[in-house]
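Example record

One chain of 270 residues, shown exactly as stored in the release files.
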Amino acid sequence: MKKFLVIGNPIKHSSSPLIHNYWMKKHNLKDYVYEKRKVEEEDLESIVEQVRSDKLIGVNITLPFKKKIIPFLDNLDDIAIYTQSVNTLFKTHNQVMGLNTDVQGFTSSFTKDPAIEYEGKNIFIIGAGGVTSSIIAGLHSGINKIYITNRTKEKAEQLKKQDLSKRIEIINWGEIPKVCDLVINTTSVGLKNDENLDLDFKGYENKKNVLFYDIIYNPKETNFLKDARLRGNKTMNGKMMFLNQAAFAFQKWTNIYPTIDDEVIKLLEK
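Predicted structure tokens for this chain:
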């Protein structure tokens, strides 16, 4: 039996097993199984060792461990080095490798490259966790300005230090920049239906061309997106980002790139 895993805390919301086991069955990978496991930070080294010893063939990493897993790994791909964020593990040449498929997942979730679609425009990112650096990398050089706010300002300042293009401006939590073209929630606020970011977006009323994007896909409409929809803004959840990053990870493990078709999308929306 070849075992795969997604780890995080919380992990109940994750649909990774649903999607990966569907693809494994579809491609007749009969001895493959994918599960989810809630872990603590002290468990990370053990997870890596299970990959090293072939007890686990592949692992996906979700919040809050995308950066915390790195010290235990032998090597990183170029994107993971740049973003200092890892969401996929596998073993190669007796080394445990950390990959980042979130950047590709994010850019593939748009019909066009977001850096082209938003070239010369302003972006507002809420949160400075493990996935935020991947979002920034996906936007790359076409963006005019990226505003970032985070409850812990030091984490946002660290992202600014990593950004070679000098496009990032840090603003205090609770402040809202003048109308941006794309507003992205990268925090976990919204995984529970009663959660709110408590940010005042009154200045975005009836701004029909502004897209509010939430990386959360379950629930499919967070309060962040619901409020945006009621204000008259465009909205998009993290469904396609999730499916695309999962497909790139699946390909790395199996050498098969799975199709993201209507059946997969409907499976996620049940």
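Notes: The mean pLDDT is 94.
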